[in-house]
Design goal:
The protein is α/β, with parallel strands linked by helices. Helices cover about 40% and strands about 10% of the residues. It is built from eleven helices and six strands.
């Protein structure tokens, strides 16, 4: 393992947060998977269409409606499960959530079905419970680690061996042998104004070959369903080792300074075990 240098990289100024999809820097490397999905929405809203009109022009398992379509006292997740309509406010958070429905339609629909079933069986209550907690965390802040060595890298992340997970296999990260797909809309929103300490909740899936976005969606939906159902039937307490942490700007190529080992020596970002 390389010996970390002692000179820390200079801090980068934080950009002003974006407030609309059109204000997001779509050339950011972590948005490469999302550009094709976002393009027609960006073009339509730039031409004056409302967010709902722009979103509903794309096919998907749900329709997008104004936030006031959600009846008072009706749980958000249950409303979507029952009506196949997603209440959407005119803000970046909800716009990114809607975009996730277009990017990962099978996965989002599966997560919503599980949420709706839990609410129907158990009600709202004072807490979500461990299954709805796990779903909510992934839906808001999740990411997927893909690759034949994904389990090995995930283990290094769980053990906070940052150089082993990110720096040492840098070539695999850069040539596509390892890759991260962002999922959570709150995670995407935070990355509209990137900071070093933004950390994703990651699950690892072993997949040895490149695949299309619809294939990734199908694989992810099936894998997550199995993981969440196992979580629901287990006696363990969420989250345990369900997710592993990843400060996302540590992904090789996602920050201009992370080619050097010293980048991962920033203990306030890359925490020790």
């Amino acid at each position: 393992m390389p010996t970390p240098q002692t000179t820390k990289p200079k801090p980068q100024p934080n950009p002003a947060p974006a407030t609309t999809l059109n204000a997001v820097d779509w050339q950011a490397p972590w948005l490469a998977d999302w550009r094709a999905t976002a393009r027609p929405i960006l073009e339509a809203t730039a031409s004056g269409d409302s967010l709902h009109v722009a979103l509903n022009a794309s096919p998907g398992p749900v329709r997008f409606v104004a936030a006031d379509a959600l009846p008072s006292g009706t749980p958000y997740e249950a409303f979507i499960a029952q009506t196949k309509q997603v209440p959407t406010r005119e803000n970046l958070h909800d716009a990114l959530n809607a975009l996730a429905w277009l990017q990962y339609p099978q996965t989002k629909a599966m997560l919503n079905r599980l949420q709706g079933q839990e609410i129907a069986e158990r009600g709202i209550g004072g807490t979500r419970g461990k299954l709805r907690d796990a779903i909510t965390v992934f839906d808001e802040n999740g990411a997927v680690l893909w690759g034949e060595r994904a389990a090995h890298i995930a283990r290094a992340l769980a053990e906070r061996r940052w150089l082993n997970a990110l720096h040492d296999p840098r070539a695999s990260w850069l040539n596509g042998g390892l890759r991260i797909s962002l999922f959570g809309h709150a995670l995407l929103e935070k990355l509209a104004a990137p900071r070093l300490n933004i950390t994703a909740h990651v699950i690892a899936l072993r997949i040895a070959r490149p695949c299309t976005a619809p294939e990734r969606d199908c694989v992810l939906a099936a894998a997550l369903r199995a993981k969440f159902e196992a979580q629901a039937s287990s006696e363990g307490i969420f989250p345990g080792r369900f997710f592993v942490p990843l400060p996302v700007l540590g992904v090789p190529g996602w920050h201009p300074s992370n080619a050097e080992p010293v980048f991962y020596a920033q203990a306030d970002v890359f925490r020790l075990p």
